[in-house]
Amino acid sequence: MSEGTLNLHGGCVLLGEAGLLILGPSGIGKSALARRLVAERRAAGGFAALVADDRVLVSRHGGRIVARPHPALAGFAEHRGLGIRPVSHEGAAVLRLVVELTREPAPRMPEEADLAATLLGIRIPRVAGMAAEAGALIEAAISWPG
User: Fold this and answer.
1) What is the pTM of this model?
2) Terminus-to-terminus CA distance in the chain, angstroms?
3) What is the pLDDT of residue 55?
4) Which residue of 2, 18, 71, 101 pairs with 96 in a disulfide if CB–CB is 3.0 to 4.6 A?
5) C-alpha–C-alpha distance, residues 30 and 51, integer Å
Protein backbone atom coordinates (compact mmCIF):
# COMPACT_ATOMS: atom_id res chain seq x y z
CA MET A 1 0.00 0.00 0.00
CA SER A 2 1.34 3.41 -0.97
CA GLU A 3 2.22 5.87 1.79
CA GLY A 4 2.48 9.07 -0.32
CA THR A 5 3.68 9.98 -3.79
CA LEU A 6 6.05 12.62 -5.18
CA ASN A 7 6.06 13.80 -8.80
CA LEU A 8 9.70 14.60 -9.57
CA HIS A 9 11.41 16.16 -12.58
CA GLY A 10 13.98 13.52 -13.47
CA GLY A 11 14.48 10.09 -14.94
CA CYS A 12 14.77 6.53 -13.74
CA VAL A 13 16.54 3.46 -15.07
CA LEU A 14 16.77 -0.11 -13.92
CA LEU A 15 20.25 -1.67 -13.96
CA GLY A 16 19.85 -5.31 -13.00
CA GLU A 17 17.67 -5.03 -9.90
CA ALA A 18 18.90 -1.53 -8.96
CA GLY A 19 16.57 1.39 -9.66
CA LEU A 20 18.43 4.66 -10.19
CA LEU A 21 16.65 7.99 -9.86
CA ILE A 22 18.44 10.63 -11.97
CA LEU A 23 17.86 14.25 -10.88
CA GLY A 24 19.32 17.60 -11.92
CA PRO A 25 18.52 20.90 -13.56
CA SER A 26 16.80 21.07 -16.93
CA GLY A 27 19.15 20.50 -19.86
CA ILE A 28 21.97 18.95 -17.82
CA GLY A 29 21.80 15.55 -19.54
CA LYS A 30 19.52 13.35 -17.47
CA SER A 31 17.94 11.66 -20.50
CA ALA A 32 21.28 11.22 -22.25
CA LEU A 33 22.79 9.66 -19.12
CA ALA A 34 19.83 7.28 -18.80
CA ARG A 35 20.23 6.15 -22.43
CA ARG A 36 23.99 5.73 -21.99
CA LEU A 37 23.62 3.67 -18.81
CA VAL A 38 21.06 1.36 -20.42
CA ALA A 39 23.15 0.93 -23.58
CA GLU A 40 26.38 0.23 -21.67
CA ARG A 41 24.78 -2.31 -19.34
CA ARG A 42 23.08 -4.11 -22.23
CA ALA A 43 26.33 -4.12 -24.26
CA ALA A 44 28.03 -5.78 -21.27
CA GLY A 45 25.35 -8.51 -21.27
CA GLY A 46 23.36 -7.26 -18.30
CA PHE A 47 19.74 -6.29 -17.88
CA ALA A 48 18.90 -2.60 -18.17
CA ALA A 49 15.76 -0.65 -19.00
CA LEU A 50 14.33 2.82 -18.90
CA VAL A 51 11.59 3.29 -16.33
CA ALA A 52 10.78 6.99 -16.72
CA ASP A 53 11.97 10.08 -18.57
CA ASP A 54 11.24 13.67 -17.54
CA ARG A 55 8.67 12.88 -14.84
CA VAL A 56 9.02 10.19 -12.18
CA LEU A 57 6.40 9.25 -9.62
CA VAL A 58 8.01 7.96 -6.44
CA SER A 59 5.97 6.28 -3.72
CA ARG A 60 6.78 4.79 -0.36
CA HIS A 61 5.78 1.17 0.01
CA GLY A 62 6.71 -0.02 3.48
CA GLY A 63 10.45 0.53 3.80
CA ARG A 64 11.11 0.95 0.07
CA ILE A 65 10.77 3.71 -2.49
CA VAL A 66 9.27 2.62 -5.81
CA ALA A 67 9.63 4.72 -8.97
CA ARG A 68 7.15 4.64 -11.84
CA PRO A 69 6.72 6.67 -15.01
CA HIS A 70 4.11 9.39 -15.07
CA PRO A 71 1.15 7.81 -16.94
CA ALA A 72 1.10 10.57 -19.57
CA LEU A 73 4.79 9.95 -20.41
CA ALA A 74 5.14 6.18 -19.91
CA GLY A 75 6.97 4.63 -22.83
CA PHE A 76 8.34 7.91 -24.19
CA ALA A 77 11.74 9.60 -23.89
CA GLU A 78 13.28 12.81 -25.17
CA HIS A 79 16.14 12.56 -27.62
CA ARG A 80 17.72 16.00 -27.98
CA GLY A 81 17.47 17.10 -31.59
CA LEU A 82 14.94 14.38 -32.46
CA GLY A 83 12.10 15.15 -30.07
CA ILE A 84 10.04 12.76 -28.00
CA ARG A 85 10.20 9.16 -29.17
CA PRO A 86 8.50 5.92 -28.09
CA VAL A 87 10.81 3.56 -26.16
CA SER A 88 10.51 0.24 -24.39
CA HIS A 89 10.33 0.63 -20.63
CA GLU A 90 9.72 -1.11 -17.33
CA GLY A 91 6.68 -0.15 -15.28
CA ALA A 92 8.43 0.24 -11.92
CA ALA A 93 11.73 0.00 -10.05
CA VAL A 94 12.73 -0.13 -6.40
CA LEU A 95 15.16 2.73 -5.92
CA ARG A 96 18.62 1.81 -4.77
CA LEU A 97 20.47 5.00 -5.69
CA VAL A 98 19.80 8.70 -6.29
CA VAL A 99 22.05 10.26 -8.93
CA GLU A 100 22.19 14.06 -8.82
CA LEU A 101 23.74 15.65 -11.88
CA THR A 102 25.59 18.88 -11.18
CA ARG A 103 27.45 21.48 -13.19
CA GLU A 104 30.52 21.06 -10.96
CA PRO A 105 32.74 17.97 -10.53
CA ALA A 106 32.04 15.67 -7.61
CA PRO A 107 33.99 16.48 -4.48
CA ARG A 108 36.87 14.10 -3.91
CA MET A 109 35.78 13.44 -0.32
CA PRO A 110 32.05 14.26 0.04
CA GLU A 111 30.55 14.99 3.42
CA GLU A 112 28.72 12.04 5.00
CA ALA A 113 25.42 13.95 4.80
CA ASP A 114 25.83 14.24 1.00
CA LEU A 115 26.04 10.47 0.54
CA ALA A 116 22.31 9.92 1.07
CA ALA A 117 19.02 11.48 0.01
CA THR A 118 15.78 11.23 1.95
CA LEU A 119 12.62 10.56 -0.03
CA LEU A 120 9.32 10.22 1.80
CA GLY A 121 11.22 9.57 5.04
CA ILE A 122 13.50 6.86 3.64
CA ARG A 123 17.24 7.36 3.20
CA ILE A 124 18.69 6.18 -0.10
CA PRO A 125 22.37 6.26 -1.10
CA ARG A 126 23.22 9.27 -3.28
CA VAL A 127 26.02 10.24 -5.64
CA ALA A 128 26.46 13.65 -7.22
CA GLY A 129 28.61 14.88 -10.05
CA MET A 130 28.76 15.94 -13.67
CA ALA A 131 27.22 13.65 -16.29
CA ALA A 132 30.67 12.79 -17.70
CA GLU A 133 31.78 11.31 -14.37
CA ALA A 134 28.43 9.87 -13.32
CA GLY A 135 28.91 6.43 -14.90
CA ALA A 136 31.94 5.62 -12.75
CA LEU A 137 30.27 6.99 -9.61
CA ILE A 138 27.15 4.92 -10.25
CA GLU A 139 29.03 1.66 -10.89
CA ALA A 140 31.05 2.18 -7.70
CA ALA A 141 27.95 3.02 -5.64
CA ILE A 142 25.80 0.07 -6.73
CA SER A 143 28.62 -2.46 -6.41
CA TRP A 144 30.11 -1.19 -3.13
CA PRO A 145 29.79 -3.77 -0.35
CA GLY A 146 27.56 -2.95 2.59
Assistant:
1) 0.89
2) 28
3) 95
4) 18
5) 13
